[in-house]
Design brief:
single chain; Rossmann fold; seven-stranded parallel β-sheet; 21 strands; globular; binds adenosine-5'-diphosphate; binds magnesium ion
Length: about 700
């Protein structure tokens, strides 16, 4: 391998500059990793007769005539050549470059590429790039016609064939060192890195680039997993409290009025092992809403408490923190609550309560604090913080997580819980430095939810929806009505196109439902993120108490809200939400003894992508399956997100959406390799990868 920083100077200054400016390629390594987008057969080059005006195209043709004229004001000479490929004629024009007359002579053949224009009724390439070649024998012609021609991501001034020529030049002068030991590759029937780089750029037949791609994908997958796992291992060099006393955990289990599911038991074990290891746990616990993550976390908290060490449970919002606090108090029961000195800490806590909590945290009397980011504030001191449980981490910034970690004496154990199922391939690509536990099984007693898409083509259909809501309420149940926006005004401000129909706004829907005859006599409530804390609390409390029949809301209810009597959910303009988000929302109903119904209202056209997503959601209740689908429809860029851009940019050929199996295999292999001394070549490969120079020349 050539080292990072090998400049493209061997191509000449001018070419090097265009690569830098137009494709952001500055080193030979980057150039050699500028892989073809696809391959053409020469026979498949565009015929002149089919040339698309306005696009960049390459043709092969023979020069049938050449003429040079002198035009005033246009740089002097104009050289015009006409080429034919047997299908039609194409004119080439060069201004002020009379010298080209020497090489562009009648009868010569070549490739010609450029942007197709039209000039006085004739197809024309102005200033095309070209490469001429001599006559060839029929055999050569056949081989030539069948040779796969790489098509590179290109620009009008750096056309594909120019890139090809430059790569050929660089390849000829580079030595590519192997990265993955041959035993590993040959076991998988993969070719080496050098061969792969050569064959992806200069295939002689289709199987050449197919083998090359397979090998390069494997290189990417393995190097990525090696660096992720190495990072994870580096966490393990930190010391953390050894939490190996299960006494209180067993007491807690006895106290619960249910048995842990098999899934939960497995995760309990995993966590127990982590906590007893003396190294900080970094574990992601994923499971659908209601799969019992919080009880699993509580059990872990017991392990810390048994050693008289502190835990915090962080929630993304005050409403959720409050709810966690209440449900944890119930789950613990009086004795354990007192023993743990359970405390709530949010920004809106009164000064007195806050002071008390702060004292209890500093003295170590409080062994479990539930709260929001207020727990990060500088005034908060912990006596001995050992475990941090984060609910729905994606709403916490990395900085905040670091801040809370700083609060511990030793490195705290960190358990992150998420109800948004992350497809495993994403999880090990984006979060490959965390261990992952998954609760796949829901505790018994969860009720099925029926989901239907309602296409709002007629007012009759819509009024049928409200009748359905009224029926649920008549049976003594409650309903959620979810809207994408809080107010209509906010949309007008942000809206750009006048033709767009504003999505349903909670405030307006609330007003209109109060007047809706189908819902006459029902108590309608309103909930959204702009209400202040007391208002939100009051609304949730009256909904929980059954004093509100229909709650119009935004997605503030997406996570954590537990109203067992709610059985109906109407989502307005459902196409405005993502699949995973809708699945989360739907998890708010069917939490009691009655089954639920979820109606997704949408105006989107049948067969549209939006309609397909909604139909998929109606047909599946498996959050993991849905998140995979979501990923497919949205593309991985969205999922990996901006902060994962580093990870993403290193992947040229590997697609987390399609190469899940390969990524899994690479992960296993990476673990195995890292359990011993890593071969030098791989260490080197990892270093290059971190520099963005994977498979560099
Ligand atoms: P999550 O945090 O994943 O949303 P919770 O831990 O809050 O789930 O559990 C949801 C509800 O299910 C709670 O009322 C909890 O007490 C109950 N629960 C958890 N595990 C079980 C189980 N194994 N069997 C029965 N109920 C359970
Ligand atoms: Mg929860």
């Amino acid at each position: 391998m050539l080292e990072k920083g090998e400049k493209l100077s061997m191509l000449g200054e001018k070419t090097a500059k265009s690569f830098a400016r137009q494709l952001g390629i500055t080193t030979t390594g980057e150039l050699l990793q500028h892989y073809p987008r696809r391959y053409l057969k020469r026979g498949e080059l565009t015929r002149i007769a089919d040339l698309p005006v306005g696009e960049i195209a390459t043709v092969v043709g023979e020069i049938v005539s050449v003429s040079a004229r002198f035009i005033k004001g246009r740089g002097g000479h104009i050289l015009e050549a006409t080429i034919s490929d047997g299908s039609s004629l194409l004119s080439l024009a060069f201004f002020g470059q009379a010298w080209r007359k020497e090489e562009l002579t009648k009868g010569r053949r070549g490739f010609f590429s450029g942007k197709v224009g039209s000039f006085s009724g004739k197809l024309q390439l102005a200033h095309p790039d070209y490469e001429l070649f001599d006559e060839i024998t029929p055999e050569e012609a056949k081989a030539w016609a069948e040779l796969p021609i790489p098509v590179y991501p290109a620009t009008s001034t750096l056309p594909s064939w120019r890139i090809e020529t430059s790569i050929r030049q660089v390849l000829g002068q580079s030595v590519i060192k192997e990265v993955i030991p041959n035993e590993i590759l040959s076991k998988r029937n993969l070719i080496g890195l050098s061969a792969a780089i050569h064959r992806i750029h200069q295939p002689q037949k289709d199987s050449d680039y197919e083998q090359a791609i397979a090998s390069l994908k494997f290189h990417e997958a393995l190097l990525l997993q090696l660096s992720l796992i190495e990072r994870r291992n580096s966490f393990a060099e930190e010391r953390a409290a050894i939490l190996n006393d299960a006494g209180m955990a067993m007491e807690f289990e006895k106290h619960l009025d249910f048995e842990f599911t098999d899934s939960q038991q497995r995760v309990n074990q995993e966590i127990e092992q982590d906590l007893a290891s003396g190294k900080p746990m970094h574990r992601l616990l994923q499971g659908e809403v209601g799969s019992g993550k919080t009880v699993v976390a509580l059990r872990a908290i017991m392990l810390a408490a048994a050693k008289n060490l502190q835990s915090v449970l962080l929630a993304p919002t005050e409403v959720l923190a409050e709810q966690h606090f209440e449900s944890i108090r119930t789950a613990l029961g009086e004795d354990l609550t007192r023993q743990l000195g359970l405390r709530l800490l949010t920004g809106s806590l009164g000064a007195l309560d806050r002071k008390k909590t702060e004292l209890d945290l500093a003295s170590g009397k409080c062994l479990l604090a539930v709260g929001t980011h207020a727990l990060f504030s500088e005034r908060i001191q912990f006596a001995d913080l050992a475990l941090v449980v984060i609910d729905e981490q994606h709403r916490f910034g990395v900085m905040q997580r670091e801040a809370i970690k700083q609060k511990g004496k030793a490195a705290p154990h960190v358990l992150t819980m998420t109800a948004t199922p992350i497809p495993r391939t994403i999880a090990i690509t984006a979060f490959g430095d965390l261990e992952i536990s998954t609760l796949r099984e829901l505790p018994r007693g969860r009720q099925p939810i029926e989901t239907h898409v309602v296409k709002i083509t007629s007012p009759a259909l819509v009024s049928r929806v409200w009748q359905r809501v009224a029926e649920e309420v008549a049976k003594g149940r409650q309903a959620f009505v979810v809207c994408p926006r809080i107010s209509g005004k906010e949309y007008e401000e942000g809206s750009t196109g006048a033709s767009e129909v504003a999505p349903a706004a909670a405030e307006e829907v609330f007003d209109s439902l109060k007047k809706n005859p189908a819902l006459a006599g029902l108590r309608v409530g309103l909930m959204h993120g702009r209400l202040d804390y007391e208002q939100k609390q009051a609304v949730m409390a009256s909904f929980a108490a059954g004093e509100i029949d229909v709650l119009v809301s935004t997605t503030v209810i997406e996570v954590g809200v537990n109203i067992p009597n709610a059985t109906a959910m109407i989502v307005l303009d459902a196409d405005r939400f993502g699949i995973s988000q809708l699945h989360q929302l739907r998890g708010r109903i069917g939490r009691g003894q009655h089954s639920g119904i979820c109606l997704l209202l949408s105006a989107s056209e049948e067969d549209s992508l939006a309609a397909q997503r909604l139909t998929a959601l109606a047909n599946s209740t498996d959050g993991f399956e849905l998140s995979e689908l979501d990923l497919e429809l949205r593309g991985e860029g969205d999922v990996l997100g901006e902060n994962q851009a580093g990870t993403k940019s290193q992947l040229r050929l590997l697609k987390v959406t399609r190469d899940g199996e390969l990524i899994e295999q690479a992960r296993e292999l990476a673990k195995e390799l890292l359990s011993q001394e890593l071969p030098e070549s791989l260490k080197h490969g990892m270093k290059l990868m971190l520099l963005g120079e994977l498979a560099s020349a």
